[in-house]
Design brief:
heterodimer; A: about 575 residues; alpha/beta; Rossmann fold; 9-stranded mixed sheet; 16 helices; 25 strands; about 25% strand; disordered N terminus; disordered C terminus; B: about 120 residues; alpha+beta; Glutaredoxin; globular
Chain lengths: ~575, ~120
């Protein structure tokens, strides 16, 4: 894995480049093929040489207004036209507009007898004439090595080839020359000796019965270029190379958030959800609700009007829509509105790299805000851990660069493969949600917790993840003396607790009433005592006053009696009676 | 057919039509190779096809568009238009034996080599 730099800092007059217009190739080559020079494209049979050469011309004609000549030694013009019509290239139309000229050079060994000295001036004249007639800026020659089968004098051929390349340079055309891969050399007849400026090698490898096309720039004189093998794709849109490994770690980091689609999950993530442009991994064993979580995320995004691209490697589109309807999510409406698109394919359809390429291109086309890969672990079926990691890191980097939120699910199987998978992927991911099955009391319940979420204070709580008719819900699990309980266990435990609580409260009530009663009793007693005391007090006070009154009366009476008797000695008044009487008595 | 530069032909002597040879020599400018080829061709024709051949010389420098029609790559190229089938011989025609084989001219004298052999 070599890093790739594409930047060029022009100091002196640097090599000028001719953009190919082929997706990705210009990025790898830092702008295209060397302008005004021949470039060699070599590779085995059926690896796409002719297609690359032709697309170079077609793109030149359509996108850069540069007419081109295609010199074919192998296929007749009509055959070429027919073959490329399936790729959406209308060669006849281009030819009619004078943008493209197909020239089929027929070589048949049995028709040619060599009798002495000759050269290939006829070919040059012919090419020169074709180029001049449409003012060609680009030339493709496919496959010049056929000459070697037509002529036996290799010495002449080689010197003429040398002359041909010089001729092309003198003409100032940018040429693509194709060559068949040789046993030990890049091309069977060593064309690379003549084309020294730029050599591109195409290969078509089969690993684990899965074929992957790859492109590598063997040599590019005077220019930096990507050195990796880049996977490429040949399909109805032509040739596309994915320079995915050329992405560095310098993507931006948005701070805004996207909702997870589940309110409780949002609140576990600081109440806001995932970071936009971050990567989210959801792992869990079979049936833990990974897809449902993905569907919620997608549904919420579509509701906000964001475009979502859903790569499904397990289920068909219709199956997903049907299944999600059972939890109350109608994804079909978003598909109809064009904000949601499904790309379903079997992982074994092609190699890992090719999946990456296909995904890459789908993303380029659809320009989603959110990408779901469900499940990412299925991609692993045909690749080694290292390959997967490299592929994923490129994918994640790419998505981050585009500020697309990635939601990947991964199936884990207890230990083994699953554990490895997680290790391989987790470091790439910003948020990692774990779904688990809690087994106990004769049932399985889903639980969810956030293993990590970079850059936010996320909840550390385990939640029960319930799939209901109205969507997924998160519930607190029972955490208490009985351990962590979910599902029926939680409900039972809660019921038990409720009963206990009820009982306790009844008891308290009872005691309360008791107390009330006792208090009332005491109060009653106090009241009674008070009443008794009151009456007693009354009585006593009355007796006291009566006594006082009596004494007064007696005093009065005595005085009155004394006065009546005119006694000389008045009886001593009680208390402060006059002292005379006392004296008297003494 | 129309663009012949220079036609050199001795009219046939009224022999059977099959025995009429129509030859076309493609050259690119009056290079030594071209001149040699033309001289060699004249010599051979005179010797073996006397009176029943016609030679058309086409200079591709002047008429480059004609290279395509006869699928000319090498210069000089001699094309036997008639009798059918079309045959092509490249080179300066210095190897008379091979020219005869290439043109499929029934030899008057015994030929040394077979067709496929290299010089």
């Amino acid at each position: 894995m070599a890093e790739t730099t594409i930047n060029e800092t022009p100091v002196l007059e640097i090599l000028q480049k001719c953009p190919t217009g082929i997706k990705g190739l210009d990025e790898i080559t830092g702008g295209g093929l060397p302008l005004g020079r021949p470039a060699l494209v070599c590779g085995g049979t059926g690896c796409g040489k002719t297609l690359l050469a032709m697309e170079f011309l077609v793109r030149g004609a359509t996108e850069y207004d540069e007419p081109g000549v295609f010199i074919s030694f192998e296929e007749k013009s009509e055959e070429l036209t027919k073959n490329f019509a399936s790729l959406g290239f209308d060669l006849n139309d281009l030819a009619a507009r004078g943008k493209l000229l197909l020239d089929y050079v027929h070589i048949e060994r049995s028709e040619i007898e060599e009798t002495g000295e000759y050269d290939l001036e006829g070919l040059f004249i012919r090419m020169g004439y074709a180029m001049d007639s449409i003012g060609a800026k680009r030339v493709a020659i496919d496959t010049i090595e056929t000459l070697f089968s037509g002529f036996s004098n290799e010495v002449i051929l080689r010197s003429e080839l040398r002359r041909l390349f010089r001729f092309l340079k003198d003409k100032g055309v940018t040429a693509v020359i194709t060559g068949e891969q040789g046993e030990r050399t890049l091309t069977r007849f060593g064309l690379e000796e003549y084309v020294a400026d730029c050599v591109i090698f195409l290969s078509h490898q089969v690993a684990n019965q899965i074929a992957t096309r790859r492109l590598r720039i063997v040599k590019y004189r005077g220019s930096t270029h990507g050195t990796n093998e880049y996977p490429f794709l040949l399909d109805e849109q032509g040739f596309s190379v994915m320079p995915i490994s050329s992405i560095g770690l310098d993507h931006s980091a948005p701070t805004d958030r996207v909702s997870t689609g589940i309110p409780r999950l949002d609140s576990m993530l600081e109440g806001k959800g995932y970071y936009r442009g971050s990567s989210v991994l959801v792992t869990g064993s079979a049936g833990t609700g990974k897809s449902s979580l993905a569907a919620h995320f997608v549904d919420a995004a579509c509701r906000r009007g964001q475009r979502c691209l859903y790569f499904a490697f397990e289920e068909s589109r219709n199956q997903i829509i049907r299944n999600m309807r059972s939890i109350g999510l109608d994804l079909g409406q978003w598909v109809d509105k064009g904000v949601l698109e499904f790309r379903n394919s079997r992982p074994t359809l092609y190699g890992l790299e090719m999946h990456l390429v296909v995904m890459h291109r789908a993303i380029e086309e659809f320009r989603p805000a959110i990408v779901v890969i469900d499940p990412i672990s299925n991609l692993l079926s045909a690749a080694s851990e290292m390959e997967v990691k490299s592929m994923l890191s490129r994918l994640i980097d790419y998505l981050k660069m585009k500020e697309i939120t990635a939601f990947c699910s991964a199936l884990t199987v207890g230990g083994g493969e699953g554990g490895r998978t997680e290790e391989g992927m987790s470091s790439l991911m910003d948020s990692w949600i774990l779904l688990q099955s809690l087994e106990g009391a004769g049932e399985r319940n889903r639980s969810l917790y956030i293993l990590k979420s970079r850059g936010m204070r996320h909840s550390n709580q385990v939640r029960e993840f319930c799939l209901t008719d109205n969507g997924a819900k998160l519930q607190d699990v029972y955490v208490g003396s009985g351990g962590v309980l979910a599902g029926a266990g939680r409900i039972a435990q809660e019921a038990r607790e409720k009963a206990e609580a009820l009982e306790r409260s009844q008891e308290i009530e009872c005691k309360q009433r008791d107390l009330e009663r006792k208090k009332a009793l005491v109060e009653a007693r106090i009241a009674a005592l008070r009443i008794g005391f009151d009456s007693e007090e009354d009585e006593l006070e009355r007796a006291i006053s009566r006594g006082k009154l009596h004494r007064e009366v007696v005093t009065q009476d005595t005085l009155a009696m004394g006065r009546a008797r005119e006694a000389d000695a008045t009886p001593p008044p009680e208390g402060n009676a006059p002292v005379s009487g006392k004296r008297e008595r003494r | 057919m129309t663009e012949e530069m220079e036609t050199k032909g001795e009219n046939d002597q009224g022999e059977s039509p099959e025995e009429r040879w129509q030859l076309r020599l493609y050259v690119a400018g009056m290079t030594p190779k071209s001149l040699a080829a033309f001289a060699n061709l004249r010599r051979i024709c005179e010797e073996y096809l006397e009176g029943k051949y016609s030679i058309q010389v086409i200079d591709l420098m002047v008429n480059p568009q004609l290279a395509k029609g006869d699928q000319i790559l090498a210069i000089p190229t001699l094309v036997r238009r008639l009798p059918e089938p079309v045959k092509k011989i490249i080179g300066d025609l210095s190897d008379t034996d091979r020219v005869l084989v290439g043109l499929d001219i029934r030899p008057l004298a015994g030929l040394g080599e077979g067709r496929g052999d290299r010089r």
